[in-house]
Amino acid sequence: MSILRLLLVLATLTLTASAAVAAPVAGANPAGAAGAAPIAIAARATAAPAAPVAAPVAPRAADPAVAQAAPPAPTIPTPAPPTATQPAGDDVASLIFTVAAGLVLVALALPGAWLAGVFRRDSIRGPLRLPPGSPVLPILLTLIIGGGCWLGGQMAFFMVRGLQHARAHGGEQMTMEHLGAGDMALVATLPSLLALFVVLGLDARFGLRRAIGLRVAALPRSLLAGFIAGVIALLLTYGASSLLGVFYKLIEYEHPSEHELLGAMKQASTWAKALLVFGACVMAPLFEEVLFRGHMQTLLTRLFTPRPPMPAPVMPLPMTDSSHVAAMAPPPPPLSVPAMATPSPSAADVMPMPPLPPAFVTAPWPAPPPELSPLPYASPPEIVDRAIARWLAVIITSVVFAIIHPLWTAPMIFLLSLCLGYAYERTGSLWVPIIMHAMFNTSSTVMFLLLI
To answer: Over 70: is that where the pLDDT of 322 sits?
Structure first.
């Protein structure tokens, strides 16, 4: 994996250098991740036209008659103003280089994924966190309350800032442009921190920490798996980001050059920049993975996993005729009694036999049960763990996760979320996607800070 890491660093530095050499202008469409742009596509730069060269003026005649007789001065044709338009060949070469770089990054990710067994059949089936039949109400309540605290905290912050802005500016409505770097730093950390404490408290109350894979004892074992999966996800996501940037360039789709939180770092103070880095690299991976992967994806996996078949009740066998027993058993040998001269008793000497109970008369002899084939539920029922249930939960969670991010980053965030969800289902440890998410945000943040 050190080779993969070295290749990742070399490819990132090469692509960053190419983006820095290229001259982006207003209206260009750089490709970017949800956080920072790994590769910038150079747009065609057109400089302002130079001032036209003035034509020479004919000398003023002293006598009007001479002026009328003088021939007009010859005019020198004004050359066309030079332009700084970049040749089309350079633009095409830049696009080709970006596509090639993206394909190289994706090609580097595929062998690592193959060695990790990603393409193996049903490899997503890891430990089952919530078995079928377990209650879903605790994890559902935790998801709703935690998400409500997160979104509600952001809404409350914007409402307070909006009222302050309206009082200071005579009732003017606040927009996102009026928020400073300090405001962005607070909204990126405080609501997530509050909601994280609420979610962890509810998990401890309902006993869900072990179920969602957030045990502290599992952190050391998850570090290596999270790092390896994070390198593969970085290569794949950055390669897809390059290809997505080329696609945006071809369709002339205008989008911001960086994430709004990273854009706030440009003019942020020291404490605001530190808070923004903490929110992007620590709080966002921790809270978003706990909420989306730990609770939403786990809940969906539990709902999509079918319950095992219930064993049928054992019914008593009906009493049948015992004639088949007599047919199977050999007939007893005849009883031979030697002939004896006995006097025949008279009717008076014979005692009458008492009548038999009705049970002995009406009840037939119980027949042994026939040999039965083993039933499928004779042993304890097994849980039907299907890979399609895991993939459905991962895909739905990834769609929701991509929607909450800026629209122009949604395709790339969806791909990243698929990697996070697969790693979570495969390992059963929530620390693995947390480490992967932190690696992605940290690398994007570091590259952005190096470029500004």
So the answer is: no
Q: What is the dihedral of CA 431, 432, 438, 443, to 10 degrees?
A: 160
In single-letter form, the type of residue at position 60 comes to R
Q: How far apart are CA 247 and CA 241, in angstroms?
A: 10
Polymer length of the chain: 452
SS (H, E, C) the chain: CHHHHHHHHHHHHHHHHHHHHCCCCCCCCCECCCCCCCECCCCCCCCCCCCCCCCCCCCCCCCHHHHHHCCCCCCCCCCCCCCCCCCHHHHHHHHHHHHHHHHHHHHHHHHHHHHCCCCCCCCCCCCCCCCCCCCCHHHHHHHHHHHHHHHHHHHHHHHHHHHHHHHHCCCCCCCHHHCCHHHHHHHHHHHHHHHHHHHHHHHHHHCCHHHHCCCHHHHHHHHHHHHHHHHHHHHHHHHHHHHHHHHHHHCCCCCCCCCHHHHCCCCCCHHHHHHHHHHHHHHHHHHHHHHHHHHHHHHHHHHHCCCCCCCCCCCCCCCCCCHHHHHHCCCCCCCCCCCCCCCCCCCCCCCCCCCCCHHHHHCCCCCCCCCCCCCCCCCCCCCCCCHHHHHHHHHHHHHHHHHCCCHHHHHHHHHHHHHHHHHHHHHCCCHHHHHHHHHHHHHHHHHHHHHC
pLDDT tens by residue, 254-290? 888 777 777 778 878 888 889 999 999 999 999 999 9
CB 191 within 8 A of CB 157: yes
Tokens of 97: 């280089």
Residue-averaged pLDDT of the chain? 76
Burial of 230 (0-12, 13-18, 19+ CB in 10 A): buried
Q: How far apart are CA 387 and CA 379, in angstroms?
A: 24
Residue ranges per structural domain of the chain: 88-307+383-451
Residue 347: predicted pLDDT: 54
DSSP β-bridge partners for residue 39: 31
- Stretch among 10-19, 81-90, 141-150, 317-326 having the lowest mean pLDDT: 10-19
Closest by CA position to 265, among listed 251, 255, 275: 275
Burial of 60 (0-12, 13-18, 19+ CB in 10 A): exposed
Strand partners, 31: 39
